[in-house]
Amino acid sequence: MAFITTKDQVRLYYEDWGTGHPVVLLHGWPLDAASWEYQALHLAAAGYRVITYDRRGFGRSDRPWGGYDYDTLAADLDALVRALDLHEAALVGFSMGGGEVARYLSTYGAARVSRVVLLAAVTPGLAQAPDRPEGVPGEVFDGLFQALEQDRIGFLGAYSKTVFRPDEDETVNEARRHWYLDMALRASPRAVVETARSWAGTDFRQDMRAFTIPTLVIHGAEDTSVPPALAGRASARMIPGARYLEYPQAGHFLIVDEAARVTRDVLDFLGSEPAVGEPGAEKVDEGRDLGVDQAA
């Protein structure tokens, strides 16, 4: 088992597969690096060095009491990048992992990064604010935190039945629920609650200015956990030259529900010309080029 140690002496478990340009995959909440199974194998087989790691408090990493804010989580990512001496790396952030990518770029810069992918990411922010009245009201998140604090196991058990798009084969559905719960329940109870507070309440709008490298944004049109109007579409507008893909009829858990398509689109992006366009974003939906504003 491989670990790196952060500045505050937290050990982070990581896996390092393949050779070639490095691709770092940052997992979503409340899971761990194993959730990247459908992408990591194919990216490594395609000639990339694929690095996955368990966020502090999750999976096989240490379970400290604190450090679940995005400043610390970005510092953890920086510790990994430096410990493995990565250069020209692609950072791929799913769900709350997209926030770590944004905070990393705004704090540590893009000197070691060549490309970014945001998958159903929480950027640029979800919470309602005076200048973002369309955001999620605070009482909605308060209900989530209360449910997690009172019965984390019950809440995650119920959520596991709704997180994936149903398959026609109930055996597949049940297997995915167990897979999800194995990861979710392995996490520190403290980490689950505190990281939820972080992804729910952090405003990344200032961080988005740091996206100065080629960026791909992918979101599901039917994502109710992280609505595209608040997240994917908004992020794409704020990143100069971003390429935006919105999958019709897709929900939040793209890395499983749309596994093959996500892998293909990420591989296409990693192999494309590394040019950054003018401010604004290209919206691609089922092969048609649309202006982003038309989807808002």
Description:
By secondary structure, the protein is of the alpha/beta class. It has nine helices and ten strands. The chain has a ten-stranded mixed beta sheet with strand order 1-2-4-3-5-6-7-8-9-10, with helices on both faces. α1 packs parallel to α9 (259-270), α2 crosses α3 and α4 crosses α6. The longest helix is centred in the middle third of the chain and has 22 residues, at 138-159. The N and C termini lie far apart (45 Å). Residues 275-282 and 284-296 have low confidence and may be disordered.
In short:
This protein has 296 residues and is an alpha/beta fold.
Query: What general outline do the C-alpha atoms trace?
Result: globular
Describe the main β-sheet briefly.
10 strands, mixed
Strand content: 15-25%
Nearest-integer average pLDDT: 93
Distance between the ends = 45 Å
**Stretches with pLDDT under 50, minimum 5 residues:** 275-282, 284-296
Helix content: 25-40%
Number of helices: 9
The tally of beta strands, per DSSP, is 10
Helix/strand order, N-terminal first: EEEHEHEHEHHHEHEHHEE
Return the structural class.
alpha/beta
Q: How much is the radius of gyration in Å? A: 18 Å
What's the quaternary structure here? Answer: single chain
Strand order of the largest sheet: 1-2-4-3-5-6-7-8-9-10
